[in-house]
Amino acid sequence: MALTTSQRKHLKALAHKRKPVVLVGNAGVTDAVVKETERAIERHELLKIRLPAVERGERSEMAQKISDAVGAELVQEIGRVAVLYRRAQKPRLVLPD
Length: 97
Hints:
By secondary structure, the protein is of the alpha+beta class. It is built from 3 helices and 4 strands, in the order H-E-H-E-H-E-E.
């Protein structure tokens, strides 16, 4: 599901006040990180992930790898924080058209 610009903007605003739920350590994207992200995104629908202090390109690759692994959309990436969104079975968040 591709997000429109207005939907992305809305999700960024909602994510602003949230704290990171998943923390990726120096070991990178492991099976445990993917499993925890899967559990968290089922519960929250929109979540922040804290990435390790590595080069920007590596962080982008990690964020993309996690979002692909859980079937989520990468909404935003700022510094060491990535925001992921995946529509739930019973959506709690209402997205603009």
